[in-house]
From TrEMBL:
Keywords: Membrane, Transmembrane, Transmembrane helix. It comes from the Bacteria. This is Uncharacterized protein. The chain crosses the membrane at residues 50-75, 87-107, 119-136. It comes from Roseobacter ponti.
Length: 137
């Protein structure tokens, strides 16, 4: 079970790296942000786009850093059955999953625009499954 837990954690890290790539290389504003802003009649100035781009890059760096931490801990101490490392991966991953799920879910409910809360929920599920399997492993 421990090897499966490590594999799930590596999958979670990969999900974070993909998200980081999306916010680094994707359009500014993101499609769903643009749709929400358009519904509100907001036109973005070049400076506002620059602010969003900076926030996107900061989010991308944070996602990449969390992914790297999960990957390093999973291939090292988690793979050696260190409960402390399993706990850190679970806590850090759960914090990100909660923010990545609840905020976008609320915005989708308010605006009707499809947001990426499902990806946050899927990430949380992978983190939870990895933690559970590591504990029983």
């Amino acid at each position: 079970m421990l090897i499966l837990a490590v594999m799930l954690n590596c999958l979670a890290a990969g999900m974070l790296f993909l998200g980081a790539a999306q916010y680094t290389l994707g359009s500014v504003p993101a499609d769903y942000h643009a749709e929400i802003l358009e519904k509100e009649g907001v036109e973005l100035s070049p400076h506002m786009i620059g602010i969003l781009a900076s926030l996107y890059r900061s989010l991308a760096a944070t996602m990449a850093a969390l992914g790297l931490m999960i990957l390093v801990l999973s291939l090292g101490p988690v793979a050696q059955d260190a409960v402390w490392a399993q706990g850190i991966v679970a806590m850090a991953g759960s914090l990100f999953a909660a923010a990545a799920t609840l905020g976008p879910l609320a915005i989708e409910g308010e605006t009707g625009v499809r947001t990426p809360w499902r990806a946050g929920l899927a990430f949380g599920g992978v983190i939870f499954a990895g933690f559970f399997l590591a504990l029983i492993g």
